[in-house]
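Input chain follows. Return structure tokens only.
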Amino acid sequence: MGDDKKLSNVIMVGLGLTLIGGVGAGFMFLGSIAFGLGAYIVAGFFGLMFMVGLGMLVWGISSGLNTTKKLGSATVVEELQGVKVVARFAVNEIGETVFSDFIPEESRLYVRLNLPTGRSVELKTSMNVWEAAGEGLEGTAWIQGDWLGRFERNPIPKPVQ
């Protein structure tokens, strides 16, 4: 599972725990008048659930923002070998995702790569690089922040006969 998927799972579980814990604690504190000490113990459990969920939410969102900030502001060009092109697409002037039949000058071009670390990234690119990075190809990518500046595919060996 990629880092992006793990991060979104942490945020979703944190949101669920926060909601269930907050509602449960609220009802138990209100019910403590009728049920006494037992309701306070259960309310404490729900309160703890709320706090853990809130912590997961804060950590997940801040980690995601830090990752995005690092991707967008890098000035160093990284050369990564062994990347695989998972998808390539464009977003046209009205915001539609298109895979062919688009006007390059009026569209933003993207390539999604699987990195050797197992992480998947979506990068902006130019038309020349977009055309060179065919889906399913493996090769070397030169990445600067959220920009794919160059892609060279690995040579495909000739079959031996």
